[in-house]
TrEMBL record:
SMART domains: FBG (SM00186). This is Fibrinogen C-terminal domain-containing protein. Keywords: Disulfide bond. GO terms for cellular component: extracellular space. It holds the Pfam family Fibrinogen_C. Gene3D superfamilies: Gamma Fibrinogen, chain A, domain 1, Gamma-fibrinogen Carboxyl Terminal Fragment, domain 2. The lineage of its organism: Eukaryota, Metazoa, Spiralia, Lophotrochozoa, Annelida. The keyword Methyltransferase does not apply. Residues 1-103 form the Fibrinogen C-terminal domain. The keyword Ligase does not apply.
Length: 103
């Protein structure tokens, strides 16, 4: 639902800060665009810098999959497998909506 808060049809910068116990990492994207509901919240992302790794590139150019909308290329259904919506390609390299599991 928070995707609606972004101004439509505009590119933005995105910064992701990750923390796990005492370790931190970040990823910054100079170009982050999410389409409207009419194009299934299509993701366009690029211009990576940081030390977290460019895991979002794997999901670039994907539509937002949800439990009732499967847009990934996986033969199964990533959104139901991982219980959350995301811009899955063939499941995930990055899933900031996913469950955080210790170990």
């Amino acid at each position: 639902q928070n995707l609606h808060a972004l101004p439509a049809n505009q590119s933005h910068e995105l910064k992701i800060d990750l923390k796990d116990n005492r370790e931190t990492a970040s990823a910054k994207y100079s170009s982050f665009y999410v389409g409207t509901e009419f194009d299934e919240f299509h993701l366009a992302i690029g211009g990576y810098s940081g030390d977290a790794g460019d895991s979002m590139e794997y999901h670039n150019d994907m539509k937002l999959s949800a439990k009732d909308q499967d847009y990934d290329v996986y033969s199964g259904d990533c959104a139901n497998k991982y219980i959350v919506g995301w811009w899955y390609y063939s499941c995930n390299h990055a899933n900031l909506n996913g469950l955080y599991l210790n170990g």
